[in-house]
## 1
Amino acid sequence: MHTPTWPQDGAKSTKPNKFTEEVINEKSQKKVKTPKAEIQQVSISSDALKEEMENFSTKKKSLKRKRVKDEPKDGSSHSVSPHLKRKTDESEEEAHERNSKKRIEKSVKKEEGDHPLPKKPKRTKEEREEAKLLKIQKKEEEEKNRWRWWEEEKYEDGVKWKSLEHNGPYFPPEYQPLPDDVHFYYDGKKMKLSAAAEEVALFFAQMLDHEYTTKKVFRENFFKDWRKEMSPEEKSVIKDLDKCDFSEIHAMHKARVEARKNLSKEEKQTLKEANQKIVEEFGYCLLDHHKERIGNFKIEPPGLFRGRGEHPKQGMLKKRIQPEEVIINCSKDARIPDPPPGHHWKEVRHDNTVTWLASWTENIQGAIKYIMLNANSKLKGEKDWEKYEIARKLKSCVDDIRDTYLRDLKSKEMVTRQRAVALYFIDKLALRAGNEKEEGETADTVGCCSLRVEHITLHEQLDGSKCVVEFDFLGKDSIRYYNKVPVISKVFKSLKRFMDNKEPGDELFDRLNTSLLNKHLSSLMPGLTAKVFRTYNASITLQQQLKELTNKSDNEAEKLLSYNRANRAVAILCNHQRAPPKTFEQSMANLQAKIDARKEQLALAKSELKQAKKEAKDKGSSDVKLQALVERKKAAVKRCEEQLLKMEVQATDREENKQIALGTSKLNYLDPRISVAWCKNMDVPIEKIYNKTQREKFAWAIDMTEADFEF
DNA sequence: GTCTCGACTTAGCACCTACAGT
DNA sequence: ACTGTAGGTGCTAAGTCGAGAC
């Protein structure tokens, strides 16, 4: 039988999982620094909590029993054939539903056009009701079909699944040669390219609008790889990229893009349906008899590699992957997916200690690429849950760990001191671990352990603070990290020591690497690594900020604003940046123009008010008409002021968010249970915080979290 | 210990679409 | 009804980290 594995219900569990124990411990040994609200919660914890947990697990059990009744665990509620096609009925239904809804909407629209007014309200109302009902039905259906894996017992260590069946990856379509009227020119002369060379030429031509086709490294890499695809004759002719004229190919590509945009509704619909079919066939697998969505079921198409930042390999040809290079992973008794006709797989294996369904080796970095499940799957969800539980565990011992590394700052051993300073950074600034990277293989980016002397500047005094460290380096994805941080003097002095007699290009922590650091961390707490600090600090920050910023009495908009602000605080901590949207300046200017216009309007309204007041005064307060006018003008001024304020807030909000990406932290660092509990406490519907995809990903948290959850 | 590889998470960008504001 | 924009989605690069070979 399954044992429900909720943290909250640990005392009841006959076989508490590894998460459960920790939570119990944590609840009983709250730290001194605990904020008020937390203490309150702890104080009720003993009896009341127990009772609550009892209720809770009974509730859950009855729920489960019911579900077991309508949906046998072995999946026999689905049709019988083991072939994956059987799983389509559900999505067909969905699609059908969606389609019929669309049709409904369409017909409504049409009628609106044909008979502008009379028929509209009645019909839409009916239709709307129907659509609404359908939606609710669908939701219920989905809820019923959801695999509540979080209520099941975990597998023994290392085992990821017992059965796995799928249709293999989807391969991108073969290359279609250029039409005869589209030409490539070399040195002004028309030249017909071989299919292989032409395909690669098209990759380049497609990118011509991009800035990076002008970069030297990109062009050189591209040209070198392109030449490898050429026939001997082509090679002997084409020797200089600057003499290549791709303009016709480029124009054709642009025309194609344009044509695709201008397709009729029907044609677009047809395309959509064709895509849907592919998704239905390749987008799902059967994992332990449950239908699960695959995250990336398509083999990556060939193209020109574009790394992030100043990548030394940018422009290289990313080759087309053949089935002969692909390894399939599925269970022994499963139907082995068919390779495309005339092809075979590199290997078929049955390894249930890994989560991937297919893999291949990519030719740029020699890295392995995987086909894996969607974020809403059991495999991903369970891991995610575990991640947050480890972070919560860190919460219970973070004070000790901080004491430890502060003490280590005084150590005689250089390694220990370096480790302590690195940990201080990782904890305080949420820096990444910073593995070493092979020089010349990737863009020059660093994390904590790989920081170099040139990346920090020490200031004894800066902006009124003492011991300020100025960071300036490129992190993951070549995103710049720039920060000025006051640090404790011991750290400051240590840094000075570390930098003694070093060149700018030398490693700051020359005795330290991530492996050493993580070994140390895992000795302090099982499962602890550098990245757990990021998760922990992100989640705890969200929780604190939410507590600080939101009041129950706020209205929904205010609550949501506070939530976003809390989210933003985390994003800033984790340095989650984005390129300002391309239209940002323009749209900001538009907004500013509106604000200016409104300001003028306000000034006008004010002067009119003044005028009205004056007139009213002159004529004496007895004039009712003038009094009314004054009131009206007053109202106008007020309205204007409000609108202006609203726009100004919007402007600041947008400006603040200009370079900050909220999504990454929401998706990867914030324990969803914090958000779910907050929603419950604040009476905010979860839909306001998480969209559909996010709700699916965090289904486990939404289902199991009560209002009293504490990270 | 050091290096390499494999498996997995985290990340930003480009596109597209739905929706809010006029 | 129109349009600009924010937000959703797909894509795949770029990290982290543990294990095992040497």
Note: Residues 308, 354-356, 359, 366-368, 370, 372, 380, 383-384, 387, 432, 476-477, 479, 515, 531, 576-579, 661, 663-664, 667-669 of chain A lie near DNA strand B (CB under 10 Å from a C1').
## 2
Amino acid sequence: MRREPSILHVDLDAMFAAVEQRDKVSLRGRPVIVGGVAGRGVVATASYEARAFGARSAMPTAEARRRCPPGTTFLAPRFGAYRRTSEVFMALLAEVSPVVEQVSIDEAYLDLAAGDHDLSAAGVTAVARRLKAAVAEATGGITGSVGAASSKLLAKIGSDLRKPDGLLVVAAGEERTVLHPLPVSRLPGVGPTTEERLRRAQVHTVGQLAAVPLPDLIEWFGQAHGAGLYRLARADDDRAVVTEREAKSVSAEETFDVDVADRGRLTRELDLLAARVGGRLRTAGISGRTVTVKIRHHDFTTITRSLTRDQPTDDPRLLAELARRLLADVDTSAGIRLLGVGMTTLTDFAQDDLFSSSSPAAPDVDAVVAEAAEVAPEPVEPVSAQWRPGQDVRHDDHGPGWVWGSGLGRVTVRFEGPATPPGPVRTFAVDDAKLHPAEPPDWTVPA
DNA sequence: TCTGGGGTCCTAGGACCC
DNA sequence: TCTGGGGTCCTAGGACCC
């Protein structure tokens, strides 16, 4: 924790609704809901006028319609407009400090210690006031709330406590005075589940949380979350303001208006989702190794199925093929409400390079596949095959597949057959671009 | 008309390796 | 042929955030 309140948290107030009210005079001063307006939509942002009637973010739009009076305006989001406003906002922040951490489209941390600023409480207050005025001016009247403190935790809580259009500077040394009276739900990381578990232990405020022994918290919440709560309750937070973070996953999903059971339709949706993910991977210049399919059933139970390749890809067609295979193992006959495709284990080089001319000569993959199918004790159909050069293949290699010989690389073949459970991977070692069969394959897949 | 879409981080078990 | 511990990777699920 620092000795000065040099971390700022800035958050635009009900940004989506505020942009709509800015752009349409007739909406000003009136309840506005922005979010999904179709059957299964939820509220993204409720204007403060709508919040007065109980509308909240993440609430089903249907529920918000019930709560809000006639005359409430329900709008689908205009992300382009929000993005433009966000860019103006972020540009202003960059003028205040070179170290800006954008958290979302409407929220950021600033490290004032990285700029040339008076870091006294009075000095930081002056900076924050000027910033708020500049934001309102540059965005056409969108207001923001600012918290300043010696840590991210208190800066964030400070802006929360004073919104909308507020400012709170927490002087160094005052952190726990501000923090301890608050309900535990104000802490980042305390959602409904954690709040309920704490309530059962008669822990309601952050001050009460600070009195719980560390071993208890770890027992209740696990090592990471438990230790995290222990520290946050003490205002012990030294997280740095970081400007860049690498993406860890890219995904796309869709909730259908009505549950979908039709396999043809699902396959087409899957292809579209894969195309979106692949397109975004390519735009970002990254590839991934792990493909995940997400399915939400009619009762909201959600499952994922994933597979990890040895080589990364950003190819939408391959992505779609792998996703189809994963979906094939899921029973969707009762209809599903959501379908999603994701890519993780991301790397920032293109997979094509791995197969370039510097690699050993590729074997005749078709011949390898044919030979493997030949020795199978039952009719099988190769689904895919991949040549992977430079793999260190050894005789004692074992695992879900098997390997023959040793050599320059492997050909991995995926088969499907009547007696073979779908998807087993068979690996063939290749020496001098030739298959080296050593012993008959065992087609039994371990239970 | 119950519950979006994009993410992050964590846990736990099993396989595998040394 | 009996026993083992640590580390990594993979898979699946869950809590949480904006």
Note: The longest helix of chain A spans residues 263-284.
## 3
Amino acid sequence: MTKALERREKLRAALIQAAEQMIAERGLAGLKTRDLAREIGCANGAVYNLVADVDELILRVGSRTLLRLDEALTLATNAGESSPRESLVRIALAYCDFAAENLQLWRALFEHRMETGKLVPDWSVHDQMQLFRHIYQPLAALFPERSPEELGITARSLFSAVHGMVALGLEQKLVAVPLPALRKEIAGLVRAMIDGLIARDVKGAAAAD
Amino acid sequence: MTKALERREKLRAALIQAAEQMIAERGLAGLKTRDLAREIGCANGAVYNLVADVDELILRVGSRTLLRLDEALTLATNAGESSPRESLVRIALAYCDFAAENLQLWRALFEHRMETGKLVPDWSVHDQMQLFRHIYQPLAALFPERSPEELGITARSLFSAVHGMVALGLEQKLVAVPLPALRKEIAGLVRAMIDGLIARDVKGAAAAD
DNA sequence: AATAATATTGAACGATGTTCAAGGTTCCTG
DNA sequence: CAGGAACCTTGAACATCGTTCAATATTATT
């Protein structure tokens, strides 16, 4: 039982790695089972012994991408001055840089859509939540009055806003923005958002509108 | 020459409308030429007389979606109190509402990717720029010191940030957010961004970092 | 060593976008 | 109005996918 499973696991790892490289080079749409099979040296049909379908394969690659992204954000959180505000700026810029350096893999995280009715497996869903936690800690330091639920919501909003800037900024479809300009814009708007949130906090929440 | 062209134009319009409905119902991936042909009553191959390929078809549908979106944003700009800040909030909420009510068509605007090498035709690129102009006017009122180029950049950043919140907020992939909560978050963050931008403006631009 | 369990293969299937020769329509011209 | 040129429509055929499966080869167990 060992020999077979060992080989199977080796091939599985090779398959996922080949898929990762193929997505990085040719985009999500360029991922072809026949090319993958040739790459790892097995028959086309054998792919389905290692993985249920391409959906799973894409999710497995996505899991690795999320892991690397997580590392990059962790690195950004701890490096540099420790003011929460500047930590958040560094995290946002790290997100931007990661997306730029891993453009196709990063895009694959959001482009991929399961066919309706098929639900995303647990191990894949779990990964995605982790991203917010980097933002959560500095936010908690900035807004000690807010409840964990409120902080979670604010964290997701901030993350989403930065994600949007990165997504549209790196898109060829709209006007291409040079990366340094994009980084500057992101840093500026993150600082503005934080300052604005703090000001609104002091002033008394929603009473001002 | 009139009879043939007339029929052609009628069929073309029917094709685009059928494509729009099909995307709205089944998503971008559910768009199939054979189904479209059956829908409008012609042969599968005839579709390629009306349209160069499905890429063009998708772009044509996208053009219509952008037009309707533009109308919705125009409506939001003029309705309600005329303070630029609240105009921007209304525009952001209108964008959110439009995306929620036209989820699949709105997604198609961003999901669709041309195969590499094929470039987007002019008439399609032109449409997309128009969206920023709704944001531009209130922004110009809020920041009279800024140059048109700076305003354009800020407008795109603001738009992108809101887009990100809407995109991730409406995504099933991450935790589903109830629409009213999302609207509240968007309104709050837009106000915070504007307040923060104004504060940074007063304080002396980038000198503070 | 024989037999059971499992893995691998590559041909085949069903979709799908796209093309194309054949045959029909429509339009212009004399 | 007749006849030919230009154009349109058709549906079969092609290439390319993901996926399946009976047959074969390999591995594990007794």
Note: Residues 2-26 of chain A form the longest helix (25 residues).
